[in-house]
Amino acid sequence: MVLFQNDCIDLQFASLKLLLAAVLEQSLSRDEFTFYDGSQVIADVAPRGLEAFQKLDDKQKTYLRERVIGKIE
Fold first, then answer.
1. What's the total number of domains in the chain?
2. SS3 letters for 40-70?
3. Span 59-64, average pLDDT
4. Angle at 8 between CA 26 and CA 46, to 5 degrees
5. What's residue 56's pLDDT?
6. Measured distance CA(25)–CA(63) in Å, rounded
7. What domain of life does the UniProt record list for this protein's source (predicted)?
8. The whole model's pTM is what?
9. To the nearest whole percent, how much of the chain has pLDDT over 70?
10. For residue 41, what are the domain limits?
11. How far apart are CA 57 and CA 73, in angstroms?
12. Are 59 and 67 contacting, i.e. CB atoms less than 8 angstroms apart?
């Protein structure tokens, strides 16, 4: 199971995701659960980082998100 935190989520949803990640981390072994902060992974993959990624059009964002998912898998 992989949780991937989206780069464009509101604070309440982010808090819920972090709570869920904490619950899963306590319930599952490390072999069954891995959490990735999507913003950080995108920042690592996107040329010029997360700030530049946020200025891209939807097609370019989709392409980079697919690269990030491929990197994780």
1. 1
2. HHHHHHCCCHHHHHHCCCHHHHHHHHHHHHH
3. 92
4. 95
5. 92
6. 30
7. Eukaryota
8. 0.58
9. 81
10. 2-72
11. 25
12. no
